[in-house]
Write a structure and sequence with these properties.
This protein is mostly beta strands. The protein has a domain at 26-141: Lipocalin, CATH 2.40.128. 13% of the residues lie in helices and 56% in strands. It contains one helix and six strands, in the order H-E-E-E-E-E-E. The protein has a five-stranded antiparallel β-barrel with strand order 2-5-4-3-6. A hairpin with a 2-residue loop joins strand 1 (28-52) and strand 2. The protein is globular. The N and C termini lie far apart (116 Å). The model is unreliable at 3-21, 146-152 and 166-171 (pLDDT under 50).
Length: 171
């Protein structure tokens, strides 16, 4: 009986903490797209953007699912809570999930990493997918794409144009 009381209190505290985190203003926003496929074990990969502290930060998503079958494309939008520094965002996010998608479906998910960063996602899923287990999603920040810079030792280009005084016409 004592164990049941401890489990009930832990569940209430955990659920209340998640609800309180979502009641506040989000620290960042997130969007990503990924493709997953599986036959008993599944694999997921994709990319997205984190909007945090006035900047857009690209990232990659990879993950492994258990007890899954099918192929699907997921587009997700969400809010990020408890993100204090950009370095806290990358990591393994854990989720337990179950669902069936035939054609198109959608849903919500809550994921949390080891640093306490919490993602609340709303997603649309396309394809054929049956998932009865869970898994982890690894998020890694991608290097921002650098635009090619002008060569610093390049010579300036001289443009020569003929003025009307320079041109003579044959008479």
């Amino acid at each position: 009986m004592q164990l049941a009381r401890v489990v009930l209190i832990a569940a209430l505290v955990t659920g209340t903490g998640a609800a309180l985190a979502q009641d506040g203003r989000p620290d960042a926003r997130i969007q990503f797209s990924s493709t997953s496929f599986g036959l008993l074990f599944g694999y997921q990969q994709g990319q997205g953007t984190l909007e945090f502290a006035g900047g857009k930060h690209p990232f990659r998503v990879t993950g492994i699912k258990v007890a899954t079958l099918g192929v699907s494309q997921v587009d997700a939008l969400g809010q990020v809570y408890r993100l204090r520094e950009l370095t806290d965002f990358p990591g393994r996010y854990i989720a337990v999930e179950g669902g069936l998608t035939v054609g198109q479906g959608g849903g919500n998910a809550m994921l949390r990493n080891e640093k306490g960063v919490t993602l609340y996602l709303q997603n649309v899923q396309y394809g054929l997918d049956l998932t009865l287990g869970g898994g982890g999603v690894d998020i890694a920040l991608a290097e921002p794409s650098a635009e090619p810079a002008a060569k610093p030792d390049a010579e300036p280009e001289l443009k020569i144009s003929a003025s009307p005084e320079d041109s003579t016409s044959a008479r």
